Amino acid sequence: MVVSIGPLRAQPAATQRKPDPFIGKWRCSHGNLIVEIRPDGSAEHTGGVKGEWKVVPTQTAEKKYQISWKDGAVFDSVTLDKNGKKYTAKNNDGFKYTAERIEF
Prior knowledge:
Distance between the termini: 56 Å
CATH class: Mainly Beta
Helix content: under 10%
CATH architecture: Beta Barrel
Shape: globular
Oligomer: single chain
């Protein structure tokens, strides 16, 4: 006896959200400054300076962010490169720098 149970259907895998590609530790081009971007939206750099980061919406495929330091007195506008290994930044005083990923 053959029992037909209908077509087999793949069940969707449990959806897990990928961490934002900005999260991790970065070495900045000026001095030995290390910036840590955390999943909870916080940031901290060498010397214990704390900040917050957020995604900046764009009309393109670019990944853009803003990091606010010192209660918003200083902020960095950041563009992540396509492979997620470097970023370029400019702060509100016009200072430009780059950073390379050193840890996820």
